[in-house]
Design a protein that fits this description.
Elements (H helix, E strand, L loop, with lengths): L2 E4 L2 E7 L1 E4 L5 E2 L2 E5 L1 H13 L4 E3 L4 H4 L1 H8 L8 E6 L8 H14 L4 E9 L1 H9 L2 H10 L3 E8 L3 H10 L4 E5 L10 H10 L3 E5 L12 H8 L7 H10 L4 E6 L4 H12 L6 H15 L21 H13 L4 H12 L24 H13 L1
Parallel strand pairs: 3-6, 3-12, 6-7, 7-8, 8-9, 9-10, 10-11, 11-12
Antiparallel strand pairs: 1-2, 4-5
């Protein structure tokens, strides 16, 4: 395993591959029921291979991800760096910062959270942090040892990102970045700005929720023009790992095959040349021309009061539109969503979901389009 370090934490090696705990194996496809035996095997295999950065958050897997991870690493706590996120949307008064910190310590079964983030910052949530003195609470927790290093994950505009970076002596941040999303949210510009301010960057969504690992034949043919024998997932991961300033890449691995491929790629760095980058740009143009919804299936929009499984509806719509596969997504939509009462036809347009979306997607409009496309 390769290791890097955060500029402001030079003595601490961080694995180039981080283990994301938002897409763990589940039982019967229920996101709130983690298959703990299968997931624990992945966690322990990752630790054995040198992965030491494990990322989770309060809402993942119906709030079961943190407790699972705490149990999974209980006997190997000294080998891992635990990273989690404070749900800023749940803070209503100043004392809530302390409440969440202490509850997450209990959930993780630890007396110290190594890397602690304010979750999903953008303009509105950043105002809440400032108004309710969130940073002071984090500094107190760092001073007394409950947390190790202070950072934030980000889902806002480039201007928001610069303002947040400039406002505090952050040690690290977590941003979405892949060859499709170079100008999205913080984007490449944000990565470079963070690097200029010596803020270490961890990257999420390098595979865009797995979509960049499962590409249509037209994209396979683009990659095939290269002499490099890389899978689509390897292309996507190497693109991110070649960016200066990236300390670690979080991957949500839920199968042994995914983990082994990612371990192999992370352990053998290869510099991309100009031909490689040109191919990646061509693939990005292909997808951008076909992608109707910028959804990464993060699930922040849930639960829906009407029972719509929003991420799966939008993901199925994207699959049908981007990956030359109509019959499969339409069958999935009807059999597993509409007939289960979780399709877009159940949407009441209450708009409960839209303020929660990190991507600022007009979810109501997109659900209607998805339903029309998948039933047309």
């Amino acid at each position: 395993m390769r290791y890097c370090s955060f500029p402001k934490i030079p003595g601490l090696p961080i694995s180039a591959l981080g283990f994301g705990c938002m897409r763990l194996p589940t039982v019967s496809g229920d996101p709130a029921r983690i298959d703990e035996e299968a997931a624990a095997r992945l966690v322990h295999r990752a630790i054995d291979a040198g992965v030491n950065y494990f990322d989770t958050a309060w809402p993942y897997h119906g709030q079961q991800s943190e407790p699972f991870l705490g149990r999974a690493v209980a006997g190997r706590r000294h080998q891992v760096q635990l990273a989690t996120k404070l749900p800023v949307w749940g803070v209503e008064k100043e004392s809530d910062w302390e409440r969440f910190i202490d509850q997450q310590l209990v959930r993780l079964g630890t007396d110290r959270i190594d890397f602690y983030m304010l979750h999903g910052l953008a303009a509105e949530s950043w105002d809440k942090v400032k108004n309710l003195r969130g940073l002071a609470a984090l500094e107190r927790a760092k001073a007394d040892g409950r947390i190790g290093h202070i950072g934030f994950s980000f889902h806002g505009s480039p201007d928001d990102f610069r303002a947040i970076i400039d406002a505090f002596d952050w040690e690290f941040c977590l941003i979405q970045l892949n060859y499709l999303d170079q100008q999205y949210q913080a984007g490449l510009q944000g990565l470079r700005y963070a690097e200029s301010r010596r803020v270490g960057v961890v990257v999420m969504e390098a595979l865009r929720g797995g979509a960049l690992a499962r590409v249509p034949p037209a994209v396979e043919s683009i990659w095939a023009r290269s002499p490099r024998p890389w899978s689509p997932a390897e292309w996507a991961l190497r693109w991110v790992w070649n960016l200066p300033g990236v300390v670690s890449v979080i991957s949500g691995m839920n199968a042994a095959s995914q983990l082994e491929e990612n371990l192999r790629v992370a352990s053998h760095p290869i510099a991309l040349n100009s031909d490689d980058r040109a191919l990646a740009d061509e693939v990005a143009r292909f997808f951008h021309a076909r992608m109707p919804v910028a959804c990464t299936t993060c699930g922040y929009c849930l639960p829906c009061p009407a029972g719509v499984f929003i991420p799966e509806v939008l993901s199925t719509y994207n699959t049908a539109s981007m990956f030359d596969n109509q019959a499969g997504p339409r069958f999935t939509y009807d059999a597993f969503l509409v007939k289960a009462g979780a399709g877009a036809d159940q949407c009441t347009e209450c708009a409960d979901c839209e303020p929660k979306c990190p991507q600022n997607i007009p979810i109501i409009e997109m659900l209607a389009k998805a339903h029309a496309h998948l039933t047309g």
